[in-house]
Amino acid sequence: MLGTKEAFLIAALLCFLMFLVVYSVNESRVSGVRELLLGNVFGMAAYILYAFGKELPPLFAYEVANGAYTAASAATLVGYRRLTCRTIRPPWLVALVAAVMASIALCHYVIDSFTLRTLTVSLSQAGIAAAIGLTVASTWRTWPSSRYPLLFIICMCVLITGGHLFRSVTQLLDINAPSHLLEPTGWNVLILSAGAFMLPVLTLGGLLLAHRTIVSVAEDAANRDFLTGAWSRRAFFDIGQRELDRARRSGNALALLLIDLDNFKALNDTGGHAAGDATLLRFAAASNGTLRSIDYLSRLGGDEFAVLLPGTSFDGAVSAANRLLMQHPCADQLNAPAPVTLSIGLAISRDDDTLHTLLQRADKALYAAKAQGRNRLVADDLPA
C-alpha cells in the first residue's frame, strides 16, 4: 500500500517532471510561465521536506516545509493571474506565506497542536485553490476557443478546495484523526496523497493556458502584415467572409473601403523603399487612430489597403472615408515627386453579395476615383 512518505516523494518527482516540461516553453516568454517554474521548485522542496520530516530537524519539518508549500501555491496563483492578464498583488501573497509560517511556529513551539497546524495549512491551500479557480472562471466569456482547459482547471480547483476543507473538518471532528503528518491511517493517506498531486495538476492546467497563448500569438503573427501591423490579405478574406455572414444574419450592412496610395510608386522610385515604408507606416498609424475598434484595416499588397466597417450605413462609411482623406499624412515632400494622397472606392453589401462581388464593386469605384483625378472618394452606388 502506498504510504504518505512514498506519496510525497512521487509528488516531488512529478513536480520535477513538470518543471522540465514548463521549462521547455519558457523561451516563448509567455507571461506567467516563470512563476509556474518557481512554484514547482518550491513544491519539490516542500514535498521532500514532508517526506523526510521524521529524519529532519523540527524547523525544516514544520516551518520551512509548510512555508515552501504555501510559497509554491502562491507562485502558482501569480502564474495563473499573469497567464489570464489579471492584476496581481505579490506583497499580499508574501504576507500570506509569512503568516502561515508564523502560525505554524506558534502551533509548534507555543501550543504544539497538530490539528491547528493542519487547519492553518489546509485553509490557506483551499483559499489559494479557490482563488485560482475564480481567476480562470473570470475568463470564461472572453475565452477565444474551446473551453476545455478552463473546465479542467475549474474542476481541479473545486476538488482541491473541497479536499482541503474536508481534511480540516475531519481533523476537527474525527476522534481518530491522525496526530502527525506521516501517520499511515486510511483517510490520512488518501487525503495527503490526493493533496500531494495538487501542484503537478495545477501546473498542467497552467500549461494548457500557456499553450493557448502561444497559439494565439502565432496566429496573430501569421495574420498580420509584418510592416504595418494591419491584417494580412489572408486574414482579410477570412474576416470579410465572417463579417458578411454576420451582416446577413443581423440585417445590418457591411461597408468596404478599398484604398490606394496615389503616387506611391514614384515615391518609392525617387526616395527608395525606406521612404515608402515610412509612408505606409504613417498611413496605418493614422488610420488606426481614425477607425473604430471594431473596424478592420488590411493590407492587400503593396500600397493597396482595405477597411471593413461592420454594421455601417452608407452615410457612416462616407464619413469614415472622409476622415481618412483628411487625416492621411502626406509623404516627405523633399523626396516625393508628387503628393502621396488617397483614392478610395466604397461599396455597401447587398443581400445577394459574396465577398468577391463586394470587392469587385469597391474596386470598380476605386478605379473611378483614380480616373477622376485621385485624392477622392467614389462610391460604387448610392443606397436604394
Produce a short descriptive summary.
The chain is α+β, with helices and mostly antiparallel strands. It has helices at residues 4-24, 33-51, 58-83, 90-110, 114-137, 148-173, 186-196, 198-222, 233-250, 264-290, 314-327, 355-371, and strands at residues 254-261, 296-301, 304-310, 342-348, 376-379.
Query: Can you tell me the number of structural domains?
Result: 2
The second-level CATH architecture of the largest domain is Up-down Bundle
Strand content: 5-15%
| Strand order within the widest beta sheet | 2-3-1-4-5
Mean of residue pLDDT values? 87
| Major sheet characteristics | 5 strands, mixed
SS content category: alpha+beta
The low-pLDDT segments are: none
> How many strand elements?
5
Shape: elongated
What is the name of the CATH class of the largest domain?
A: Mainly Alpha
Helix content: 55-70%
Radius of gyration: 31 Å
Determine the N-to-C terminus distance. 81 Å
SS field, number of helical segments: 12
Q: From N to C, what is the helix and strand string?
A: HHHHHHHHHEHEEHEHE
Polypeptide structure, described:
The protein has 384 residues and is of the alpha+beta class. It has two domains: 4-222, Rhopdopsin 7-helix transmembrane proteins; 233-379, Alpha-Beta Plaits (2-Layer Sandwich). It is built from twelve helices and five strands. Helix 12 links the parallel strand 4 (342-348) and strand 5. The radius of gyration is 31 Å and the shape is elongated. The protein starts with a helix and ends in a 5-residue tail after the last strand. The model has no long low-confidence stretch (mean pLDDT 87).
